[in-house]
Amino acid sequence: MRLIRHGQEQEQGNQQALFKRIQPLLTAVKPSAKGGRPRLSDERALNGILFVLRTGTPWTHLPKELGFGCGMTCWRRMRNWQAAGVWHRLHLALLAELRGAGKLDFGRASIDASVASPRRVRTPAPTRAAGASLAAGATSLQTAGALS
C-alpha cells in the first residue's frame, strides 16, 4: 500500500510540466571521460531546487531520501543554469505564452523610480583639475605646502 499525501500527484504533475518547458532550454552535457559517479538527471535536480525554494530548507539539509540527490548538487545545477541564462529564457518564454493567451495583466503593475530613467538628466558641475605642482596624493594646499 502506497501512502500519498493530499495534492502530491498534482504537485508531481506540475513539476513534470515545468520540466518539459525547461528541458529545451538546457544544454546537453557530455559524460566525463574520466568516468566517476553518474550525473543526477536534470529533472531530479530541478525537483530538488523547487523543494528547497518552496520549503526554505537549507541546501545542505536536502533529504537524500526524496531522490533529489545532494543539496550541493542541486545548488550547483541552479547556479550553472543561472549563469547559462536558463531562468531568464524560461521567464521570457512564460511571459510570451501568457501574452499570447491574453492572460498577462499589467493592471496592478508598478514601476520603481530607482529603475526608471529620469525625465531630465542633470550633468554634474565640472571639477577642478589638480594642479601639476601639487605632490602626488596631496589632499589639500596645506599638505602640498608641507611636502614642498
UniProtKB/TrEMBL annotation:
- Taxonomic placement: Bacteria, Pseudomonadati, Pseudomonadota, Betaproteobacteria, Burkholderiales
Tell me the InterPro entries matching this sequence.
IS402-like_dom, Transposase_6_like
Protein name per UniProt:
Transposase
User: Domain Insertion element IS402-like spans what residues?
Assistant: 17-91
UniProt-listed Pfam families: DUF4096
